[in-house]
Design brief:
The complex is a heterodimer of chains A (384) and B (370). With 384 residues, chain A is of the alpha+beta class. Chain A has 3 domains: 2-70, no CATH class; 80-294, 3-Layer(aba) Sandwich (Rossmann fold), CATH 3.40.50.300; 301-364, YebC, transcriptional regulation domain (Alpha-Beta Plaits), CATH 3.30.70. Chain A has helices at 24-27, 120-127, 145-153, 171-180, 188-194, 210-220, 240-255, 267-273, 291-298, 314-320, 342-352, 367-375, and strands at 34-38, 45-49, 55-59, 66-70, 80-91, 94-105, 109-113, 135-140, 143-144, 156-159, 228-232, 259-264, 276-281, 284-289, 302-307, 324-327, 333-337, 359-364. Chain A has a 6-stranded mixed sheet with strand order 10-11-12-7-13-14, with helices on both faces. In chain A, strands 6-5-8-9 form a 4-stranded antiparallel sheet, with helices on one face. In chain A, helix 6 (210-220) runs parallel beside helix 7 (240-255) and helix 9 (291-298) crosses helix 12 (367-375). Chain B is of the alpha/beta class and 370 residues long. Chain B has 2 domains: 45-167, abc type-2 transporter like domain (abc type-2 transporter like fold), CATH 3.40.1710.10; 175-364, no CATH class. In chain B, strand 4, helix 6 (133-155) and strand 5 (161-168) form a beta-alpha-beta unit. In chain B, helix 1 (3-19) packs across helix 9 (219-249), helix 2 (21-42) packs parallel to helix 9 and helix 7 runs antiparallel to helix 11 (284-301). Chain B is elongated. Classes of the chains: A alpha+beta (384), B alpha/beta (370). The complex binds adenosine-5'-triphosphate and magnesium ion. Magnesium ion is lined by residues 120-121, 161, 232-233 of chain A.
């Protein structure tokens, strides 16, 4: 049974280890035992079925590419893994976190999305009991952390922002070191295998690339087989390939039924990974919901990208016809369209005015536009 | 308290330690190189002849001949002095005399009366500085060779002339005696301050401390494991330095309980000092500079390389507020000079410093983030 994918969709061209990926809008339907996936090679969609936690091998019927699809666990219930109420943090006069409240459900990937300095680290480190809140309460797995964080420690795994482990321990020694701290102990061999660190296990941490270090960081957070994993900007500073490898690792955690609390300032990261997104800006949560919900509620419909537009007065022509158009730094023009039908209108304007351009791209508006709409500011600089 | 956690943390330090060539060099090799270098520069070069002070109460033909025979050995250079008997010990002390013989006033008479009384004897007193065992055993054997020869010629082997050994401490020591205990204090200071600084700046910046806050390791377990490692390093470097001192420089090093107490107190003292410094610096770079700014002047001012007495008076006053001064003096008195009272005094001061700095360090160290 095939499932239709809408034509105007923000589908990320992900191709990681040749695993077939589930487009973000579809994978969220987690009770479905059938999945529509996209071939990383030819882009055609295939529907496959499986049970939760299963990894199913698929062969693309169009181009015969072989790959695998992982069936994630459903979010089992509405039970909360984390409950934050009226959490507040002041640094002198600065209110870094302003009485925020939210819940993270068991089994979901919760993305805390916000620009630099929004208060992500402050919030997550208050939840991890590393920083002391000015006010408010946090419950993890039903335990109030102000009184019983010690019980919680065995059940959570933490990767702090910009974490850098002991330079002169090997990957395996590092994992063993952190594992020794806990009573709950996961199998190190399994972690190494799952995170694809087999070739690196005897290398010194200091000799690893940035991406591998982050992967080891995630591995460290798993040594006690935690129910909740906190990852503070796990992919910041990595090149796109390494970043996607980290994403794949995080998707794997979700598929194993772990709750993931992820902070990021990459909207693609939230879009690709998150079941639930909270957007934080200047210490306040300004929007919250699934990616779909946020885009439906705050997005600007779709966006038509006119690539490399060389005609001077193209913007004026579009604006005269009542379009919201703006010139990007790279010369592209972005036009916001509420209804798909208006695409044809734009095309006829372009032809009529003899506007010169390279290509046209239509995409659904993304979290970047949601953020822009909500705050009037950009989420992040192009790329760091 | 979980021994497994403490051991894991200790082991991680050990692995990091022996894999870092720079750390190995600075903690183990560098102090030894310094000792070899300074030892070579300041050792009295090629003393082929050893001076022997002769106090001759007999002043007879026989005693003068005996002195001349000693002088003719080319090993001993005699230096005849006239000193009252009761002043000999203070003379030795005040003039830093390494060895001295006293020829009794019955020397010639005894040798002459042998022909009438076979049981007559006369005793030469041999005063020697016990800190110079090696040279003095040479001198001692030269003197006894001469004495045996004389006895043989006069009596056919019966001991008329005897040698009475008297140990003294002259009060002055060689430079290396002074320098080596100072190197122990200096090395412990370096490894403890820099080790402690690394844990409180680099580990903080790298998120390791934050990460540990979310694991079950307690603060006590963490500090204990790090302290155990510092103590281990301190003992290893002290051991190496002592071995060098004994086997390369022939020092007479006294290993005592006091020395162990000093090593432990010194390790706590400077680890605590590292924690205090670590509180006021942001990153590794400024930590390195702050560490240098503290250890470098202290090393010179606290009399590690030169005796305090050679410095201007105001610097000597400064030295007396520096913890390293008491560490150095404590080690010297406990290991070499064997002035137990002074050693205890210095150790107590080091212990007090250790308690103050370690507690302040513990209190000042931020465990949680703001
Ligand atoms: N220890 C501190 N003392 C004073 N101000 C702080 C402290 N930590 C953070 N801040 C301030 O609080 C605000 C929130 O910082 P926070 O680190 O939580 O942001 P963030 O969202 O994690 O940013 P980034 O993406 O850069 O990690 C910022 O303005 C920051 O300058
Ligand atoms: Mg942050």
């Amino acid at each position: 049974m095939f499932e239709e994918i809408p034509t105007i969709e923000s589908i990320l061209p992900l191709k990681i280890y040749n695993s077939f990926y589930i487009p973000s809008n579809i994978k969220r339907d987690i009770f479905m035992m059938e999945r529509t996936v996209k071939c990383p090679n030819c882009g055609n969609t295939i529907t496959t079925s499986g049970s939760y936690g299963e990894v199913v091998k698929v062969i693309c019927p169009y181009c015969s590419t072989k790959g695998k699809v992982t069936f994630g666990y459903p979010i089992s219930s509405d039970e909360s893994a984390i409950e934050v109420s009226n959490l507040r943090k002041e640094y002198g006069d600065l209110v870094a976190v302003n009485n925020i409240s939210f819940k993270v459900k068991k089994g979901e990937v919760f993305a805390f999305l916000g620009p630099n300095g929004a208060g992500k680290t402050t919030t997550v480190e208050m939840i991890e009991s590393i920083r002391v809140p000015t006010a408010g309460a946090v419950k993890i797995l039903g335990n109030d952390i102000s009184s019983s964080f010690d019980q919680v420690k065995e059940r959570i795994g933490v990767l702090p922002q910009e974490f850098h482990s002991f330079e002169r321990l090997t990957v395996r020694e590092t994992l063993e070191f952190f594992q020794k701290m806990f009573k709950n102990r996961a199998s190190i061999n399994e972690i190494i295998a799952n995170l694809d660190l087999k070739d690196q296990e005897n290398k010194l941490y200091m000799n690893l690339s940035g991406g591998l270090k982050q992967r080891v960081g995630v591995a460290i957070s798993l040594v006690n087989n935690p129910e909740i994993v906190f990852l503070d900007e796990p992919s910041t500073g990595l090149d796109p390939k390494a970043r996607r490898e980290v994403w794949e690792v995080i998707a794997g955690l979700r598929n194993k039924g772990k709750t993931v609390f992820l902070t990021t300032h990459y909207m693609e990261e939230a879009e690709y990974l998150a079941d639930h997104v909270a957007i934080i800006h200047k210490g306040n949560i300004i929007a919250e919901g699934s990616v779909e919900e946020l885009i439906r509620k705050f997005g600007e419909g779709s966006i038509l990208d006119i690539k490399n537009c060389k005609t001077e007065d193209a913007i004026d022509a579009l604006k005269q016809s009542g379009f919201n158009a703006k010139q990007e730094d790279n010369g592209d023009i972005e036009v916001y369209i509420e209804h798909k039908e208006r695409v044809l209108e734009i095309l006829s304007i372009l032809r009529h005015e003899a506007i010169d351009y390279d290509a046209i791209d239509i995409r659904r508006s993304n979290l970047e536009e949601v953020f822009l709409h909500l705050t009037g500011a950009k989420l992040s600089e192009e790329d760091e | 308290m979980n021994a497994g956690i403490i051991w894991a943390s200790f082991k991680a330090d050990l692995q990091s330690f022996y894999r870092s060539k720079a750390t190995l060099f600075w903690t183990l090799l560098f102090p030894i190189l310094l000792i070899l270098m300074f030892g070579a520069i300041f050792s009295g070069v090629g003393d082929a002849e050893y001076e022997l002070v002769v106090v001759d109460y007999d002043d007879s033909d026989m005693s003068v001949m005996f002195t001349e025979i000693l002088n003719d050995t080319d090993i001993i250079k005699t230096n005849v002095k006239v000193i009252e008997e009761e002043n000999i010990l203070s003379y030795i002390k005040n003039n830093d005399i390494k060895r001295l013989i006293v020829i009794p006033d019955d020397f010639e008479q005894s040798l002459n009366t042998f022909y009438f009384d076979e049981n007559v004897t006369t005793s030469i007193k041999f005063y020697f500085d016990q800190s110079e065992q090696q040279t003095n055993s040479i001198i001692r054997s030269v003197i006894s060779a001469v004495v045996i020869e004389l006895n043989k010629n006069i009596s056919g082997g019966k001991d008329i002339i005897l040698i009475d050994d008297i140990e003294t401490i002259s009060g002055e020591f060689e430079f290396i005696d002074f320098f080596l205990p100072g190197m122990i204090g200096f090395t412990i200071m370096q490894t403890c301050i820099y080790g402690s600084l690394e844990r409180n700046t680099k580990f903080r910046k790298d998120g390791i401390l934050r990460k540990l806050l979310t694991t079950p390791i307690t603060r006590t377990e963490w500090i204990l494991s790090k302290m155990l490692f510092q103590l281990f390093l301190s003992f290893v470097s002290a051991f190496l330095i002592i071995v060098i001192g004994i086997f390369l420089f022939g020092l007479n090093i006294h290993i005592s309980l006091l020395m162990f107490i000093l090593i432990i107190a010194t390790s706590f003292l400077f680890t605590g000092m590292g924690m205090v410094i670590g509180r006021f610096v942001k990153d590794e770079e400024s930590a390195g500079m702050a560490g240098g700014a503290v250890t470098f002047p202290m090393m010179f001012l606290a009399g590690t390389f030169f005796p305090l007495e050679q410095m201007p008076e105001f610097l000597q006053t400064i030295a007396k507020v520096l913890p390293l001064y008491y560490v150095n003096e404590g080690f010297r008195n406990a290991m070499i000079y064997l002035k137990t009272d002074d050693a205890i005094f210095h150790s107590v001061i080091v212990l007090i410093f250790a308690i103050i700095f370690f507690l302040t360090g513990l209190i000042l160290t931020k465990w949680k983030e703001d």
